[in-house]
């Protein structure tokens, strides 16, 4: 495998822009940048930081593939759907049959992937229950803690507050009600994570190993523990879960770049 070829995958998410540099065997550089302002600017920031992390700051523009919420804003060489990127990245990280649960800022989904890395089924949450990552960010704001502290706060709860899972908007209103009724911030934080896990459980479609990608797996492991209790089997985060779509995009970029190089060699 040609390790001299480096490609970049960029996942333009609603909460963060993620970029990875891939050499054919492993991720050699990565970056996560909060999505603020223009998507184009944050994508350039993420790519520059990932290249710097790989020690390739001065490299010529590598072949890039964009995915996520706003891939057309990046100006990449090519783009790929978020589902295809998730499948490629997940299978590269865990080359076995799995139920992949993607828990990002917007649209959680459950993807069944066979041992060959092919999709066999896809389940999405109903529209009003989506936005799980953004929901937890709003809960953190209401509890006056940084989102990165919501997990540690939830760990102090004796039991989770009862917060519904049917609709993100109604669930947020219940956060206010539980605080009004005397629930502690820790109980509300734990209840919010339980609410997200219930939404995913209701989507169904679990079989085999259950692996998780996305920012929630990175920052809110209590959601995985709650989901594990619901489906009654282990739920594990993939390595570098927030980077999985970007990795899949980088793999796609490499496939296209190698194919184009092969065609050029044939023409010579």
Verbal overview:
This protein is an alpha/beta fold. The chain folds into 2 domains: 7-91 and 243-267, ATPase, nucleotide binding domain (Nucleotidyltransferase, domain 5, 2-Layer Sandwich), CATH 3.30.420.40; 95-237, ATPase, nucleotide binding domain (Nucleotidyltransferase, domain 5, 2-Layer Sandwich), CATH 3.30.420.40. The protein is built from 9 helices and 10 strands. It has helices spanning 39-53, 82-93, 132-142, 147-154, 168-180, 185-203, 215-219, 221-231, 244-267, and strands at residues 7-12, 16-22, 27-34, 63-68, 78-79, 98-102, 109-113, 119-124, 209-213, 235-237. It has a 5-stranded mixed beta sheet with strand order 3-2-1-4-5. The protein has a 5-stranded mixed beta sheet with strand order 8-7-6-9-10, with helices on both faces. Strand 6 (98-102) and strand 7 (109-113) form a beta hairpin. Helix 3 runs parallel beside helix 5, helix 3 runs antiparallel to helix 6 and helix 6 packs across helix 8 (221-231). The mean pLDDT is 89.
Task: List its traits.
268 residues; 5-stranded mixed beta sheet; Nucleotidyltransferase, domain 5; alpha/beta; 10 strands; single chain; 2 domains; 9 helices
